[in-house]
Amino acid sequence: MALPEAIADLAIMADPNRGRDKFVSYAEKYVNYHMMPNLMREKKISFKGGNGCNFNAVMDHNNGAKHVEPYEVESGISRTDTTKRGFVPWRISKTQMAIDETEMAIADGPEEILDVLDVETFRSELALWELLEDAWWQRGATTSSNSKAPFPLNYWVYTQADSSDGAYSGDHATTGEGAFLTKNHNSWSGGPGGIDVTANTKYANWNCAYTNVTKDDLFTKMRRAYFETDWGDPIPHPSYHRSGHGRCIYSKYQQVAEAERVAENQNENLGNDMASKDGLVTFRRHPWKPVHALKDQAQDYVYMIDWSWFGIAGNKNYWMVRKKLREAPNQPTVLRGDTYTMWNTICYNRRAQSVFSKT
Q1: Would you place residue 115 in the very low, low, confident or very high pLDDT band (cuts 50, 70, 90)?
Q2: Are 289 and 260 in contact (CB under 8 A)?
Q3: Which helix (H) or strand (E) holds 226?
Q4: What confidence score (pLDDT) does residue 139 get?
Q5: Contact (CB, 8 A) for 357 and 299
Q6: DSSP secondary structure string, 39-53?
Q7: Sign of CA pseudo-dihedral 8, 14, 19, 24
Q8: Smallest Cα–Cα separation from 344: which of 35, 43, 72, 101?
Q9: Nearest CA-CA partner of 355 in 130, 139, 162
Q10: Is 326 exposed, middle or buried (0-12, 13-18, 19+ CB in 10 A)?
Q11: Cα–Cα distance, 3 to 103 (Å, whole number)
C-alpha cells in the first residue's frame, strides 16, 4: 500500500538503510544569491523603532568660505538649510513551515535519519532567501502603490528610461558617456527615501545607455562612471558608511560572458580596467558577477554597486520574530510556525552607484 503523499518525505527520513544527519539540497532556484549575503549581515543592519527609518543627507556646504584682505568690511552673513531627511517605511516579510505530529512520531529514536524540524526550518529559511532575492532584483511588483514589497535595487539605482524622462537623451544616451540622473523614478515620483532628486540634484545615481560590451562602448562608460562615483570624505565626520564587500558589478550571465571574451582576446589592449583569470572577470580589480535572478528580465542592466553604502533598516521590536509552533486551524495534528521580520532596504549614498542599460 502506497504511503500518503503528505508523508512521502518522511519515509526517506526514517529509512534506517540511508545515511544519517546530512542531506544535499536541490531546492535552490539560483546558483548564487547576492542580496542576503551582502545586506543581511550584522554590521549592515540599523535597528530602529517607530514606523520606519530616517536618515540625514547634507546636500551642500554653507558657502561661508571666501578670501579676504585686511580691514575688509563684511557684507553680512546668511545661513541656508541644506540638510534633508529621508524616510524608509517598514515592510513585513514572513516565512512559514508546517509539520504533522505523526511525522515526528515516526522519525524518532534510533530510526531517526534526519531531524524533521531541522529540514523544515531549512526549507522555510530558503524560501525567505528566494523571496528577498527576487524582490531585490525587481522581479516582483515595483510601483509606489505596492505597500508590501521592500524597496528593490531599482528603487535606489535607476536609469533615465525608468525616470520621469521616460527615454534616454543627452549624456545618458548611447552617444554620451553618462551623467548623474537628476530626475525621480517614474514609479516613485517623491524620490528615493522621499527626497526629491529634481530639487536636490546631488542626490543622484550615475547612468548611461550602451549598445555593445566592448572597450569603446560599455567599458569606456564604466571607466567614466568609476571615476565620477569614487567619492571620498575630505573632512572626517560621523557617517553611514559601513565596511564590507565594497564595489561589485552585476549583470546577466550574457554580459559577463561577453566581457570575459573581450578580456581574453584583447587583454593587452584593455589597459588596467578589465581582467579575466580563473573564471573571474574583474573591472578595476572589482568582481563582475552574473545574477541569475536577472535572467528573465527584458532589459540588460549592468549595475556597478558600492555595498558599503547599502544596508538594511530593521525594526528593533520585530526583527526575525519566530512564533511558537501552534496547532493549525482545522488540522489538529498539524503544527505551524511563522517567522516575521519588519524591515526595508536603504541606500545612504546614491551618487556612489551606477547603472547601465542596453538599448
Answers
A1: confident
A2: no
A3: helix 220-229
A4: 53
A5: yes
A6: HSSGGGEEEE-TTEE
A7: positive
A8: 35
A9: 162
A10: exposed
A11: 12
Identify the pLDDT of residue 1. 39
pLDDT at 243 over 80: no
| CB half-sphere exposure, 247, CA atoms < 13 A | 21
Binning the chain into helix, strand and coil, the percentages to the nearest 5 are 25, 25, 45
Cβ atoms within 10 A of the Cβ of 137, count? 23
Q: How far apart are CA 47 and CA 64, in angstroms?
A: 36
- What cell does 228 get? 565620477
Question: What are 262's three cell numbers?
Answer: 573581450
Please determine, for residue 3, whether its predicted confidence score (pLDDT) is greater than 70.
Answer: no
Q: What is the DSSP string of 115-164?
A: -HHHHHHHHHHHHHHHHHHHHHTT-S--STT-SSSPPPHHHHS--TTTBT
266-294: average pLDDT:
79
What length does the chain have? Answer: 359
Q: Which residues contact 219 (CB under 8 A, 6 or more apart)?
A: 213, 259, 262, 270, 273, 274, 283
Percent of the chain with pLDDT over 90: 49
Q: Are 350 and 328 in contact (CB under 8 A)?
A: no
**What pLDDT digit, counting tens, does each position of 16-65 carry?**
555 556 788 989 988 888 988 888 765 667 777 888 999 999 999 988 88
By three-state DSSP, how is residue 310 classified?
A: strand
Residue listed under C-alpha cell 544596508: 311
